[in-house]
Amino acid sequence: MKTRNFLLPVATAGVLALTLSACGGGGGGSSSGGSDAASQGLDGRGPITYVQGKDNSNVVRPLIEKWNAAHPNEKVTFKEQTDQADQQHDDLVQHFQAKDAGYDVASVDVVWTAEFAAKGWLQPLKDKMALDTSAMLKPTVVAASYKNTLYAAPESSDGGILYYRKDLVPTPPKTWDEMMSMCSIAKANNMGCYSGQFKKYEGLTVNASEAINSAGGAVLDADGKPSLLTPEAKAGMANLAKAYADGSIPKEAITFQEEESRQAFQDGKLLFLRNWPYVYNLATTEGSSKVKDVLGMTALPGKDGPGASSLGGHSAAISVYSKNKATALDFLKFLTTEETQKFFATQGSLAPVLGSLYEDKDLVAKLPYLPVLKTSIENAVPRPVTPFYPAVTKAIQENAYSAIKGEKTVDAALSDMQKSIESASAGQ
Ligand code: GLC
């Protein structure tokens, strides 16, 4: 049995790279299929396709219309995927594997960068293809990079927010225990108390990691090794399991992804909701929303004070198989201009990647939650950075799901999670 390190240089800029030991063969982390492709099409101009998950916030189409009006010979077509992170991932993998020249620019979740870059599918943004990231929030740039090379343009960031009902909760909770003690208010109002995203998919990895981090634990330690066998990690996971068992997290929440949980909150069925900033726009503008005028936003609750969000967000990457990379690079630049980023923020309440916008007086007047969001992003904990992320997230999701549903004890779930992350490696 041979031990290998599949490792990234650990922890520059606060990112924990996962130290994986694995046995046997399996794909390494180096770029294979894409290295030749990466030298081609650099000057190509012409129509391109932009692939992204469901445009919940209705910002992509108007933006592309604007681009197309100004670039009649380099039009962008929008290929919209579903609203489910895992399906988006699998769709991109299939098209990259098929070397599809028709997926020119893809929106890449922060947790996919390492995997896709290691496979050689993403065009490195250097030399002729360089992109200036100096005005961007550092965590967004780190998340779009792999082995110190930038592989995508940070497009929107994401930090978890606790949404609450201002009409029913005069002072929002700062800790998990405080929030749980307020579940009596939910009960008195015949509504569910708390939900995040607890279906077995990427969102559960986000929520389980947040529960662990917010209780003072960590999925990985400072050396990038799984560290789930601690009292703090146990406390975090037990918080979710207990709340589900006693009904503070309503039973249907085990099927919720972002959109289902948003809908439940907007329908007045939840007192507290953990979700991303995009909810603000829809919850305050959709005609059917019952929470329009009573929407509160604050930091996720922690142990003794605010908790720690998982870092989310997306970056726009150019496929190495694109034939029109010069156009694609211009489109990436267009996605990151101050104007576009302001548009994303004001129209879709998406989190800007440009640091200056969080201090922009006009914007803060319009979107008063921006300081809460900035703190959430700055303190957010990245999920493990590894080319073998699919196996790692599976280990977290499956065990968190069993623990929440009470199918495994919290101890057994964490011990299995620890073991599976340790043995996670390509194709195994
Ligand atoms: C959001 C986040 C992304 C995360 C996903 C989980 O889209 O931006 O980082 O993986 O939710 O569902």
From TrEMBL:
What Gene3D superfamilies does the entry give? Periplasmic binding protein-like II
What InterPro entries does the entry give?
SBP
Per the record, the domain of life is: Bacteria
Q: Which residues form the signal peptide?
A: 1-24
Compositionally biased tracts (Low complexity): 33-42
List every stretch annotated Disordered: 28-47
Q: What are the alphabetically sorted keywords of the record?
A: Signal, Transport
Which protein family is named in the record?
Belongs to the bacterial solute-binding protein 1 family.
Record-given protein name = ABC transporter substrate-binding protein
Which organism's genome codes for this protein? Arthrobacter humicola
Lineage runs: Bacteria, Bacillati, Actinomycetota, Actinomycetes, Micrococcales
